[in-house]
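Methods — Computational structure assignment.
A single polypeptide chain was analysed. Its primary sequence is given first, followed by the predicted tertiary structure written as structure tokens.
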Amino acid sequence: MARRRSDVFSVQPKGNDFELKRMYVTPEARGTGVASLLLEAAATVVRDAGGRRILLETGTRQPEAIRLYEKSGYTRIPSYHDPLSVCFAKDLTGP
């Protein structure tokens, strides 16, 4: 039996923040708004767990992901893991 991949995300606590560790959107769902919905769902999970900020890291060779994060209100921050990656944060305490 073939397995179908699903659109998913995972977050984990990182000090006083939460990190978006993984986000995957199936190729057929890309460009449909699913990625934005997953980011919103991840932020809801973090807020519900008492998180105030969500962090994430992406590769420099993922311009679509970088545009998505910037469009979704994430701001670039210094790299906290791999110096060749691009890191973002979003404050979840505002309106």
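Note: The chain has a mean pLDDT of 90.
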